[in-house]
Amino acid sequence: MDIVTLLIQLILPLGIINVWLLRQSRATAYRGKDAPNLKAEFKAYGLPEWSYYTVGVLKLSAAAMLLLGFVLPVLVAPGAAVLAVLMLGAVAMHARVGDPAIRYLPAALMLLLSLLLIFL
User: Fold this and answer.
1) Among residues 10, 35, 50, 70, which one has the fewest Cβ atoms lying within 10 Å of its Cβ?
2) How many Å apart are CA 106 and CA 120, to the nearest integer?
3) b vs e for 12-44, b when ≥16 Cβ sit within 10 Å of the residue's Cβ?
4) Residue 84 sits in which domain range?
5) What DSSP designation does 20 have?
6) Helices (H), the chain
7) Is residue 1 over pLDDT 80?
8) How many domains does the chain have?
9) What single DSSP character describes residue 21?
10) Residue 72, Cβ neighbours under 10 Å: how many?
């Protein structure tokens, strides 16, 4: 495993943990439709409340898989695949509500990093 793969495997879950646990109740420059927090962002996309919880569990589970992947490498590809699908959905939601590209840049970068992790 090379240093780039290791860095990606660390950056992805730390980014998810940052957004979903540390900054979920804060406004950021990247929230869709100027939502003041993560839950409101899902509402701004027209998604049901249960989707917020489902996506949160999936993203945090995928992040855990990537971190556990340092010990159990078999978990890396499935964790990265789950993140890739979810990040593709995030990019689509931003585009659907007409957010400027800068708003979905983090999701697009996470999608790219997830795909790199799968295929490296």
Assistant:
1) 50
2) 21
3) bbebbbebbeeeeeeeeeebbbebeebebbbbb
4) 3-119
5) I
6) 3-17, 38-44, 49-68, 76-96, 105-119
7) no
8) 1
9) I
10) 9
- Side-chain half-sphere CA neighbours of 114 within 13 A: 25
101-110 as b/e, with b when 16 or more CB fall inside 10 Å?
eebbebbeeb
Cβ(12)–Cβ(114) below 8 Å: yes
pTM for the complete prediction?
Answer: 0.91
Contact 52, 39 (CB under 8 A): yes
Per the listing, tokens 């964790």 go with 79
Helices 3-17, 49-68: axis angle to 10 degrees equals: 150
Q: Amino acid letter at 114?
A: S
